C-alpha cells in the first residue's frame, strides 16, 4: 500500500517506520527541511529502542522516504496519516492549527479518492473539521478516519508491531476494509481491531 505520514516527530516516525517494515511504501512529509535531510541520511534525532535500525533498513530497501513536499506525499499515496503536533493551549485545549493546515493541504493536493486518518491526539469532533477543510478544496471523495495511538515511550516500536488492540473510527465500509488490511500484519497474535 502507498502511505503518506504527515509529521515526522515521535508518532510519525514510529508509524512510518513500522508501516514500511510491514511491506508498505511510506513517504513521511515534514516542513522542517533540516530534519528531513537528516532522516534521509538515516539520522534519527529521538531515541526509541529499535527505531533507528527500522528507519535505516527501510530507507536502504526503498520502502521509506522523507520529503518536505506534502503535496507530493498526498498525491503519491492512497492512505494519509496526519501525525502533527497538537500542543495544549493556555486553557488546556488542543491547538488544532497544524492538523487543519495539513487538512487544507490534503484537500488542495488530492487528485483521487483518499483515506485520511488522524493519528494526532485530538478532541471529539476533529474528524468533522478535517473533513470540512478537505471537502472545501476538492471534488475527490475522502474518507476521514481516526486511529488513536497508544504508544509508550521506550516501547513504542514494540507496542506498534505487537499491539494489544487497534482502535479505528471509520466513516465507510471501504475505509474499514482498507485499514483492516493495513493493520492485519500487526494483529496476527490475537490482538483485536476495534471499529467505532
Explain how this protein is built.
The two termini are 23 Å apart. This protein has one domain: NAD(P)-binding Rossmann-like Domain (Rossmann fold, 3-Layer(aba) Sandwich), CATH 3.40.50. It contains eight helices and eight strands; from the N terminus they run E-H-E-H-H-E-H-E-H-E-H-E-H-E-H-E. By secondary structure, the chain is α/β, with parallel strands linked by helices. Helix 8 (173-183) links the parallel strand 7 (165-168) and strand 8 (192-195). The strands form two sheets. Strands 3-2-1-4-5-6 form a six-stranded parallel beta sheet, sandwiched between helices. Strands 7-8 form a two-stranded parallel sheet.
The CATH first-level class comes to Alpha Beta
CATH topology: Rossmann fold
Mean pLDDT: 95
Strand order of the largest sheet: 3-2-1-4-5-6
**What order do the helices and strands follow?**
EHEHHEHEHEHEHEHE
Write a brief caption for the model.
This protein is α/β, with parallel strands linked by helices and 196 residues long. Helix content is 39%, strand content 18%.
Detail the topology: elements first, then pairings.
Layout: E1 2-6, H1 10-21, E2 25-29, H2 33-40, H3 51-60, E3 64-67, H4 70-75, E4 79-82, H5 97-109, E5 114-118, H6 126-135, E6 142-146, H7 156-161, E7 165-168, H8 173-183, E8 192-195
Parallel strand pairs: 1-2, 1-4, 2-3, 4-5, 5-6, 7-8
Helix pairs in contact: 1-3, 5-6
